[in-house]
Amino acid sequence: MQLFYSSGSPYARAVRVALRETGLLARVAERETTLRDPGAVVLPHSPVGRVPTLVLADGTVLTETALILPYLDTLGGAYPLLPPATLSRCGQVLGLLEGMAVWNRELRRPEHERSPGVIALETTRVNRVADTLEAQGWTAPARPDAADILLGCALGYAERRHRAWPWRQGHPALARVFDTLAERPSFRDTLPPLSGI
Ligand SMILES: N[C@@H](CCC(=O)N[C@@H](CS)C(=O)NCC(=O)O)C(=O)O
Questions:
Q1: Coiled-coil region(s) at which residues (predicted)?
Q2: Which of 23, 37, 98, 105 is the most buried (most CB within 10 A)?
Q3: What would the pLDDT profile of 82-140 be if each residue is shown by its tens digit?
């Protein structure tokens, strides 16, 4: 199997962390691709052109993190990533991550093209979800499930790629979980580069 990724993508990072945690990385070749580029090496495999993209041995192409993570659970890794109890938390974290991605996209536009309304909406959404996760009393797990992995990657994105959001303020429990997850070899091995935003 081949996994197309970009080093800055929190979605692709979640799949890369999951492969490392479950011991499935040995069965997957990771291939870095450019994005939003007609020459991107992922494009001959997927017209969507986004990461993560997983190409199976029979040529089947999977996109979308929320589809790839459950597929990994069919491969007999070290432990299940997505037991039913994780689904609700996964949805919340994916909502937070998507909010940050939309907010970040606005910030990458020239200032006169940005939508203050979109930025305000997504800032509110992201804080609302983080406050809810904080109140749930999240703790660092011995074996991270898909929700833990997505949370670590979402907060890692806030930490290094979307620093416009001071996410640690008011979220000490999330900060403790993040700092613990960040020490794991799977997270250290997939650290995204710092961005200017
Ligand atoms: N809903 C997708 C989102 C993936 C996504 O947005 N990936 C970004 C990188 S973070 C991407 O590939 N962007 C390139 C593009 O939009 O063309 C998922 O969950 O996998």
A1: none
A2: 98
A3: 999 999 999 999 999 999 999 999 999 999 999 999 999 999 999 999 999 999 988 98
Q: Are residues 95 and 162 in the same domain?
A: yes
The domain boundary residue, chosen from 51, 75, 99: 75
Q: Which residue is closest in CA terms to ligand 1's atom 14? A: 50
Residue 102 contacts residue 94 (beta carbons within 8 Å): no
Closest C-alpha to ligand 1, atom 6: 50
User: Ligand 1 centre from 43 Cα, in Å?
Assistant: 13
Statement to judge: residues 62 and 94 lie in one domain: no
Across-strand partners of 55? 2, 61
Rounded Cα distance between 146 and 70, Å, is 9
Q: How many helices (H) and strands (E) does the chain have?
A: 7, 4
